[in-house]
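Morning run. Coffee first, then this:
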Amino acid sequence: MKKTTLALLLSAGLPFAALAAEPMPYPLSNLTVKDGVMPEVSQFKDAKSCKGCHPRQFKGWQGSMHSIAFIDPVFQAEWAMGETETDGATRNLCGGCHTAIGTVTQTVEFKSESGKYGGFTTQAAATQGVSCEVCHSVVDTNIDKTANGEHGNASLELATDGAKRGPLSDAKARGHKVVYSELHTKSEFCANCHNVFNPVHDDFPLEHTYQEWKDSPYAKAEIQCQDCHMVPVETAVRVADEMKPAKQLKDHGLGGKAGMGGGHRDLIHDHTFVGGNAVVAPLLGVPGGEAHAAEAKKRLQTVAELNAKVSGSARAPVLEVTVHNRRAGHDLPTSLTFIRQVWLEVVITDNQGKEILRSGTLTADNSLPDGTVVFQDTAVDIHGKLEHKPWKVAKFSVQNTIPAKGSKTVSYPFELPAGVTDYRVDVKLHYRSFDQSVADLLLEDKVTVPSIEMTQLQQSYQGTSLK
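And here it is:
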């Protein structure tokens, strides 16, 4: 075993000279290992070794964004760009969540000749991103040691004793030691990577999914991240509509075995961790990728609802469109809210099909036209200049996401041509994980970023009255 202590690795500071007028210390990661000694990568098992006893969980995880967290080409390219622009300061910050094993074993290497901007390699189980070994080796959270006293930036403590931690208090050991972990039953477990702060800029929250949940009605109802993201989409819909944790739903149908040879349990969590990304897994062609993409689309198509009405006068009508975040337990969108895009496409036509108004229709080059209403945060650097590189983002100049169980209304003034009284309104709400310009910047091959129609409505009007 290597004798270098993680305290030296994780508490050391690196200047983030490229970002600020006065360089500030930049912590490598909040990750630690329980015994304080850097482990060997061989101490962590390949996820495939879990498949024999936990086939349901392995099937759910395989092809998930967790499983490809390290090899995701969009992440790899952005990470590589950060490596070059910050002289390596972002390596462990990003790696702490995307390859916790690679980070604590210090087996992550940067290859400048690989990919468009370079690329990273690691070894064995460390290549499997957020794997079984990562989550079930978590013994604690390091919130008491973080600079801002909040979960985030991989604020995890891993154990290397071979025991697997989990939410079952009466689990029987079969093949490895088992330890009950209350942390695994709570959203605080997920918070350690689903809050990301820029420590150069006063720990500015680049991603704040956990905080969004914490401030939501879901948290007040004791509905955890696991209640929506570790169950089928249909169950997540019920959780949001009934505002109950999954285990409290009547006839939820989630029973089964936690492992081969075990007894029947009332509720077994699937390990799909489905969110909104339907792009990367199919792009990589990994096993299970298409299935996860289909689930992501289904989830996106159950999250929001639209309402529309026309106000004003016959001479100066105003279309008012309201977007409701019905079933996301956090903001819409969430995660990198300055990269994700949720937008409205609105078309108004007369009774002959002639166009009166159009907004938000993608251009021929798959871009959003000027004037599109986008529910998205606007990120800027220390000089107030628009910025999408996470290591340069100092704040959000505009915040325009929709909170859980909240809504936002947008107005579209328009003019009816002389003699026109009948008209039709078509409204669509779209989602995509990133703009086409981001794909063009980061990826070597040309990839057209797909958008997903989340929901839509059509209404016909006569003057300003709904037919």
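The first strand starts at residue 13 and ends at 15. Good start to the day.
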